[in-house]
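INFO  loader      accepted 1 record
INFO  loader      residues=71
INFO  predictor   begin
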Amino acid sequence: MKFRYDKKDDVMLVWLSKSKVYHAEQSKSMILHYSKDGKLVLMEILNASKFIKEASDLLPSNLKQSIYSAL
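INFO  predictor   done
INFO  writer      dumping C-alpha cells
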C-alpha cells in the first residue's frame, strides 16, 4: 500500500495494487479505480483532511500516525 497527499487539492491517493486502472466510479467524496478484473487498484479521497479527521477514530493507531505525518 502506498499513500500520497496533495495538500493544494486536499486529495489523498491510496494505491492498493500496481495493476492498471480500467475504470473508475465516484461515490460522494471518493473515486474508486478498478482493474479490468474488478479489483480495487486506487482510492482517491477528496477533501481528505476532513475525511481523515472524521474517520480517525476507526483507524488503527499505526495507520493513523502514518497518515497524519503525510498531512
